[in-house]
Amino acid sequence: MSEENNNNQMGGQKPATVELRSEGLELGGGKKPINKKMAGIIIGVIALLIIVGLGVYAAMRQTAGSTDVSGQDKGIFGDLPQAGEKDKEPATESGFSGMPCDHAERRAIGVMLAGDPVNRPLSGASKADMMWELPVLASNVTRLMGVYQCGEPTEIGSVRSARHDYLFLAEGLDAILAHWGGSYHALNRIAVGEFQTLNALVNPDNAFFRKNDLPAPYNGFTSYDRLWKALQALGYRTTSNFHGYDFKDDASSDQRPAGGTLTVSWPGQFRVSYEYDPVTNRYVRYWAGVKQVDAEDNQVVAPSAVVVVRATNGPMTGPGGYNDVGIEGSGEMEVYQDGAVIKGTWRKNELEKKDPTHFLDENGKPVVFTRGQVWVMAPSADVPVTWTVQ
Q: Does 205 fall in a domain?
């Protein structure tokens, strides 16, 4: 194609050319020459823009390389909130008991505790923010998990072995589980990195110790301070991601009934009952007819709310005689607080382990607990549960 035809296709205009001549810079085939002074100004402006650009780039690189006190990269724009996030106020009360404390933002620690009569009275039970009690054998021998976020016992124990059911519960509460060994079902999951725990068999940062006045394996103990230091030494995340349950103040005294007794008829020495005291608005706990008193501080164990969730209980496959509690899924539930009974359902996602256990009333709304220790028990449907009003 000829140059003329090419120009015609471009609307008859000849393309501009740039040519540097000895007498100056000419544009458009030299029709409008630019003298040396003008060329110098243009070159100066371009140089200034390059300098400014390099300065901005250096500043952005410096910001991008900055880190916060946790060692995390803050990115080139610093501490801007992520899309869809709201500014989060620091927690001032436990997400498990609703009680105020100075470090309510801390990640919780769950501790496996013995339910055997030889270990009674337990140490640290009265200061647990939340307590879970499940059967660890199909014969309904029970074990407990104390959850500590604001409570700081100087002695907790005796510490016993983990079960996979408790791993699921702790993960849903964003809690690190402390334990002394475990079933092979639990240890296999821990070994492949599915769960973060504090295992006394490894004894990180000397977190666990033995007492001489009890026989093994019932003589293993720890403390909140030891566990918290070990959690940090292992590099685990220290701030809780658990949203927390909803809480309210105690019902007024004129709204409380005269009293009542709640009984969960696990067999023999594992039978539990609670005597509701309308004066304190608490449920005094009895184990096999004996009032439960904490060995660490001599305080009576008396939760403000007792939750009974119905969950299946059957033998686990493989050796060891372990059982499998159907603590994932959903089922019937009753909450005993303020001397009254709230009926509803519980729910926990079977696939997403980080999903917490939800407690819902008959209208499907989350239960609002009375501030104080919450004690959750998971008997199967064949275990009688009775509430007798005085």
A: yes
| Residue 205: burial class (beta carbons within 10 Å; 0-12, 13-18, 19+) | middle
Vertex 191: Cα angle to 187 and 195 (nearest 5): 85
Same-domain status, 231 and 297 = yes
- 172 with 290, same domain: the answer is yes
SS3 of residue 43 by DSSP: helix
Q: Residue-wise pLDDT tens for the chain (390 aa)?
A: 443 344 344 444 444 443 434 334 444 444 445 566 666 666 666 766 666 565 555 544 444 444 443 344 444 334 444 433 334 567 899 999 999 999 999 999 999 999 999 999 999 999 999 999 999 987 889 999 999 999 999 999 999 999 999 999 999 999 999 999 999 999 999 999 999 999 999 999 999 999 998 999 999 999 999 999 999 999 999 999 999 999 999 999 999 999 999 999 999 999 999 999 999 999 999 999 999 999 999 999 999 999 999 999 998 887 777 899 999 999 999 999 999 999 999 999 999 999 999 999 999 999 999 999 999 999 999 999 999 998
State residue 156 phi and psi, 5-degree precision.
Answer: -130, 125
For the chain, the domain total comes to 2
Query: pTM for the whole thing?
Result: 0.78
> Whole-angstrom Cα distance, residue 90 to residue 78?
20
Q: Strands 329-337 and 374-377, how do they pair?
A: unpaired
Q: How far apart are CA 17 and CA 172, in angstroms?
A: 70
Are both 219 and 130 inside the same structural domain? yes
Does 44 share its domain with 151? no
Range of the domain at 150: 109-389
Is residue 275 in some structural domain?
yes
For residue 52, give Cα distances in angstroms to 47, 60, 316.
9, 12, 69
Length of the chain, in residues: 390
DSSP assignment of 49-101: HHHHHHHHHHHHHHHHT-B-TTS-B--TT-SPPPTT--PPPPP-B-TTT--B-
Q: Is residue 114 domain-shared with residue 43, that is, in the same domain? A: no
Residue 90 lies in a domain: no
Domain check: are 144 and 220 in the same one?
A: yes
